[in-house]
Amino acid sequence: MKIKVGINGFGTIGKRAAWAVSKQDDMELVGVTKTRPSFEALMAIDQGFPLYAACQDDVAGFEKAGMKTAGTLDDLLTKVDIIVDTTPGGVAEGYKSKYEAAGVKGIFQGGEDHSLTGISFNAMANYHESWGAKFSRVVSCNTTGLCRTLYPIDKEIGVSRVIASLIRRGADPGDRKGSMLNAIEPSLKLPTHHGPDVQTIMPWMNIQTMAVVTPTTLMHVHCIAVDLKRKTTEDEVVSIWQLTPRVRLVRGKDGIKSTGQVMELSRDMGNPRGDMMEIVVWKDGIKVVDDHLYYYQAIHQESDVVPEIVDCIRSMTKLEQDPLRSIAKTNKALGLSK
Prior knowledge:
Elements: E1 3-8, H1 12-22, E2 27-34, H2 39-46, E3 51-53, H3 56-64, H4 73-77, E4 82-85, H5 92-102, E5 105-108, E6 120-121, H6 123-126, E7 135-138, H7 141-156, E8 159-169, E9 185-186, H8 194-199, E10 207-214, E11 220-228, H9 234-242, E12 247-250, H10 259-268, E13 279-282, E14 287-289, E15 292-299, H11 306-316, H12 323-334
Parallel strand pairs: 1-2, 1-4, 2-3, 4-5, 5-7, 6-7, 8-10, 12-13
Antiparallel strand pairs: 8-11, 9-10, 11-15, 13-15, 14-15
Helix pairs in contact: 1-11, 11-12
């Protein structure tokens, strides 16, 4: 019996989550919602995803545009076991009571505060905290990236302190506004929210973060300094990440020196939409000095959380108890290397 899944919000994350769910043999994508007719709504129809209006007031707009809907979000909620809420940040709180009233489990995104659910999710680090949960939250793209690389280092070597500087993209590639054309803007409220967000997954982690927003749309880059609990070597660190799912090592000496070249690699690999769901770490940018580790990583903000959403569904609906088996199953279905 497949778990029936709905997606509320067929946008940047929602359309990717819908595609990912549709690839799983233990899940059924029942439908997706939009608030208004758009090219994304047309894409949903073209891909065979049943389209629902977010509310009754939106139906007329779809009808005027010649798009047939299968009903509203209220109708969708009567047909699903779990809803993945990928609505814009700050909106989901208003939907939570609707999901509760319908008796449907809900997954929220990193744009919402941890307090909305009391549980945040990362497949490797705390899969079982969401086991059977009514509501959970998949952490943001940046927090997902930090957890993916720091958790295995902490597990195998031990981490006493992390200082991470985040160079953030100004907007997603499809956005018409929100990215400065000729400016770099520091986050003046320090430390930034990213460190506390990591601690919703790994509360023991001593981590401080800073961030600047830059005029690029492709990826975020993290510059990370880690104080370890014992001395190590670059070879040991590399060997840990080589075995870590959803972490990809690249080399500047191979011509991958920038986020633009990372995204070109992703397109050359034939990844859907040119996405890079893995966290990219520059192998020749890893430096170890005694018990200090320094490295750079790149985060594709549009896609790295997508496999986490799939694993979160499995944990919340008790489809798979072993996180590594869930990760492997998801990765195979999505064409990820490990």
